[in-house]
Amino acid sequence: MRTTAGGSWGTHIVDLTNADYPQVMAERRRILDADPGRTQILDGMMPACWDILVYYLRDLALSYPLSCHLAENGDRFHWRNDLLGTDQVFVLGDLTTLPYDPLSFLGREIPDDLLLVKERDGQLFFDAGLVTFAAAWSVSFDVGMNFREIHGPVPRFTGEGLTSRAEQFLMHLPTDSVYRRVNWTLSASGSRKLDVSLEELPEWGGDMPRLVRDRDFGNVQLRIELEHFMRLPMSGAITFCIRTFMASFAEIKAIPVWRDQLAQVLTELPEDLASYKGFIGHRTEAVAWLLA
Question: What's one Pfam family here (predicted)?
Fold first, then answer.
């Protein structure tokens, strides 16, 4: 757990304590119903999908015993999530006992985007995922890519050797540890809209030009992605999971220490990284608004 000026975080792998959890899950389920392609599972990845399902349900039952319950009897499981009204009995490995594939079933219970990575021929490949809240990328396009292909567009990542080091780190993950990192950007949407995937580009593509034109920088959103990395115990697959949070510039500006820190980070970020993150064209104006 980590304590900050905004409170504490990191107690659990999955955070179900936010008041908006039911609303976020309703939006995720709506997206999955409308676009089943947000779940991608390549051949040979179904064992890893069962693995991640059991791993997370066990963790949820331990973390939230008053609302999440998992009973096990051999390969038979009984899962209840009182917060969402889920009550499901299933048999491990038997697809007929679930209303969806195991990855989709899990994705309808937790707000994190779920990615599964497997090692082949000394490289990591993104071979399965459920992603409804992507930041300007597409799960159906990226699935099947190797680690270097996915991170190729990131400035400096490969050229400075970070890709190889990150891949080696992931390939040596043990099964008894959980690792966490935080990523950030400025959202391409001028609202709390989590789904700024390429699939939804027509819905959000005009947001930032409009905000900049109207000088509406208070509605620019700092997008924080809390990521967890684990090696699953049964399949050996690596899971890379992303939980997204938002804070508007107006909210950040109200807390001077946060305002000053964000303004400094935005100002000092190298141009190639600011361009990659999508705010190079309005960085100066955004910082000026924060500090005004």
Answer: HODM_asu-like
Alpha helices in 156-282 (DSSP H): 162-171, 201-204, 207-213, 249-253, 256-268, 271-277
User: Of the candidates 159, 171, 129, 188, which has an alpha carbon nearest to the alpha carbon of residue 272?
Assistant: 159
Give the pair of three-digit tokens for residue 160.
């400075």
Known catalytic residue at 181: yes
Give ∠ CA 15-235-62 in degrees, rounded to 5.
Answer: 30
What six digits make up the tokens of 48?
A: 């890893």
Assigned token pair, 127: 């071979």
Question: d(Cα 283, Cα 267) in Å, to the nearest integer?
Answer: 7
pLDDT in tens, 175-203: 999 999 999 999 999 899 999 999 999 99
Do 152 and 158 contact (CB within 8 A), yes or no?
A: yes
Q: Dump pLDDT digits (tens) for 242-268.
A: 999 999 999 999 999 999 999 999 999
Residue 258's contacts (CB-CB under 8 Å, 6 or more residues apart) are 5, 252
Contact (Cβ atoms closer than 8 angstroms) between residue 108 and residue 32: yes
Both tokens of 251, joined, read: 């909210």
C-alpha angle 85/228/82, rounded to 5°? Answer: 10
- DSSP class of residue 196 equals B
- Give the helix/strand (H/E) hosting 237: none
Cβ(170)–Cβ(230) below 8 Å: no
* 212 close to 282: Cβ distance less than 8 angstroms: yes
Q: Which of 239, 229, 225 is nearest to 187 (CA)?
A: 225
Query: Strands 7-9, 2-4: parallel, antiparallel or unpaired by DSSP?
Result: antiparallel
Predicted TM-score (pTM) of this structure:
0.94
- Give me the catalytic one of 120, 181, 213, 215: 181
CA atoms within 13 A on the CB side of 18: 17
